[in-house]
Write a structure and sequence with these properties.
With 474 residues, the protein is of the alpha/beta class. It is built from 20 helices and 16 strands. It has two domains: 273 residues, NAD(P)-binding Rossmann-like Domain (Rossmann fold, 3-Layer(aba) Sandwich); 76 residues, no CATH class. α1 packs across α7, α3 crosses α5 and α8 packs across α10.
């Protein structure tokens, strides 16, 4: 009888998923993989690479099909749910995104239960930093339990928030939500989409490399994982050395290319100043302590990316960086681009991404006038409205009442345990049921208000918890 663990992997052809598949195959003495791939991707490079490998079994199917998920989870020890639609594609097809990301999570949970594996199959779910929205300085330090706050027009974050709630309230014996940050992967140079301009130069990210993400996913399947790892939320981050301001990230890329000027291909007023996502994590070391995975730096990533670029692309990028400016400007002026919003006086997008048209008008037109800010590297934590040092086994009704009042609402039910739903009322009067764990540890709050950005101003006035991350001025 085989002692190998069987892992069902979704998203096997994506950046993190394919790297995870390769990592698991390297551990073929301990794992066999059932890898989900859509039938139309039978000729994908990842399939060709691993086809015929005895450690890999292809599951031809789709996250939206519950029968496909039942075939996928049947008899497995662990599910690595990495697959789904991501931005920018996710925001262009919102209905499809909800079916894939929310429906997929629901189908996996239901399939595990239907197979009678709720006590034996562990589920690792990959969430996203986008769930907590833009966290510009001075609230650029974050930890799990901070308020879910979704940037406007971010359907991806809406879908991932709802999917996370399904997993966290699934009743499975072992589940975990790992909120992914920006993944530095070798194909980033190929990204050519207006979303490039949605990310503020003064914003921050605590990056992680795709290789380290893959090691994390694979390591989460090992027997050495402590029991305390499960039923928790974690921020995936590379740690102190991978905490950079976005303009620093641009310089790291430029150095790897041998460029003298990192910003020759665009101008400062082309990029948004808010309404994206990203933060430095005050708690990402907690995940590293539980399941060690870090081994790479942004410089490692940049060298690998440049090495994989065609020689002509490297040559042009190194010696003629300004050549790309007209191409980039055309992108910014196209559909979904920041300059397109300005040209069409699209106040809804302008207000969301710049604060106002007047604020955009004041932005510098030359890099010589741009302030390359350095936000504080001293950790600053938000107030969660209860004693976060308490173990969930020690929570009392007073903790839930205190947290609910800090959110401008009330706890209406009784506390049974961390994973039994109880009743709450939000600051705007909506009543809902939620597990204390999701409410306190996950930072989820009213399911109606949480994904409705039009309610955020009203919530700020009545919800001190949320007001910490919804300031008047960024």
């Amino acid at each position: 009888m085989s002692t190998k663990k069987t892992v069902f992997l979704t998203g096997a052809t994506g950046n993190m998923g394919s790297a995870t598949l390769a990592e698991l195959v390297r551990r073929a003495d301990r794992f066999r993989v059932k890898a989900l791939v859509r039938p139309e991707e039978r000729n994908h490079a990842v399939v060709k690479r691993f086809d015929g490998n005895p450690a890999v079994e292809w599951v031809w199917g789709d996250l939206t099909n519950v029968e496909d998920m039942r075939r996928g989870v049947a008899g497995v020890d662990q599910v690595l749910h990495i697959g789904g639609m991501v931005s920018p594609l996710a925001d262009k097809f919102p209905e499809r995104t909800m079916k894939v990301n929310v429906g997929g999570a629901r189908n996996i949970v239901e399939a595990i239960k239907a197979a009678g594996q709720a006590e034996t199959t562990s589920l690792v779910y990959i969430g996203t930093v986008a769930q907590t929205g833009h966290r510009n300085a001075p609230v650029h330090w974050g930890r799990t339990g901070d308020p879910i706050k979704i940037s406007r027009f971010d359907q991806y974050a809406v879908s991932k928030t709802e999917a996370e709630a399904i997993v966290a309230q699934s009743g499975l014996k072992r589940w975990v939500s790992l909120r992914q940050t920006g993944i530095a992967h070798p194909n980033m140079w190929k990204i050519f989409d207006p979303i490039i301009f949605h990310n503020p130069f003064a914003g921050v990210f605590e990056w992680v490399t795709v290789g380290d993400s893959a090691r994390l996913a694979a390591n989460a399947c090992e027997d050495a994982v402590p029991e305390a790892f499960w039923k928790q939320f974690y921020n995936i981050g590379g740690g102190e050395k991978l905490r950079v301001v976005n303009h620093e990230f641009a310089r790291i890329t430029a150095r790897a290319l041998g460029q003298k000027e990192a910003f020759a291909s665009y101008l400062p007023h082309w990029s948004a100043t808010r309404n994206f996502h990203g933060q430095w994590y005050a708690d990402s070391d907690r995940l590293e302590e539980m399941v060690p995975f870090r081994s790479e730096t942004l410089e490692d990533w940049a060298r690998e990316m440049v090495a994989g670029m065609p020689a002509l692309v490297r040559l042009i990028a190194r010696w003629f960086p300004g050549v790309g400016r007209s191409r980039m400007e055309k992108l910014a002026k196209g559909p979904g681009g920041t300059l397109n919003w300005i040209a069409n006086d699209d106040r809804e997008h302008i207000d969301a991404y710049f604060g106002s048209r007047e604020a955009w008008e004041k932005l510098p037109r030359d890099w010589a006038d741009f302030e390359f800010r350095q936000p504080s590297r001293e950790v600053s934590l938000l107030d969660h409205g209860y004693d976060t040092g308490k173990h969930e086994h020690d929570w009392t009704g007073d903790d839930l009442r205190s947290a609910a009042e800090f959110r401008g609402g009330k706890h209406l039910g009784a506390l049974h345990d961390a994973d039994s739903p109880t009743q709450f009322r939000c600051a705007l009067g909506h009543e809902f049921a939620m597990t204390p764990r999701l409410y306190l540890k996950g930072g989820h709050w009213c399911p109606t208000c949480m994904i409705d950005q039009s309610s955020y101003d009203a919530n700020k006035a009545a919800n001190p918890f949320f007001a910490q991350v919804w300031p008047d001025v960024d």
